[in-house]
Write a structure and sequence with these properties.
mainly alpha; 5 helices
Amino acid sequence: MEEKSTASIEATPEQILYAKILEIGMYIGLLILFVTFAIYAFGIMNPYIPLDEISQHWSKPVNDYLHDAHIKNGWGWLGMLGYSDFLNFIGIAMLAGVTIICYLAIVPTLFKNNDKVYAVLALLEAIILSIAASGIIAVGH
């Protein structure tokens, strides 16, 4: 005879909090992407690379493009937010960083529930993702 599992399938409060923050962050990131694309596409702001020149850069390796266009790599785009073709990076950074916010948000709940191991792991995950995003440690490319 088969035994039925009595384990609950319901999400924990931490999972629900994580999912709510992730959903809100995702919608905000997508909205930012739509708005910044509209600013670029409708010419509301000037792009750094004029539209009639952009196709000249398509076949170049990234390093050559960055060098030829005098663009700093890494977080250098923050200094170029005055150009419409760099505004979309705000939405991309939001979408990429929302996971860090989610992890940080659940840490207090995990400690409150005496889930110290999960709390420490969530905190470490947020720290590792933040260090990786910062570019402090550069490995490979």
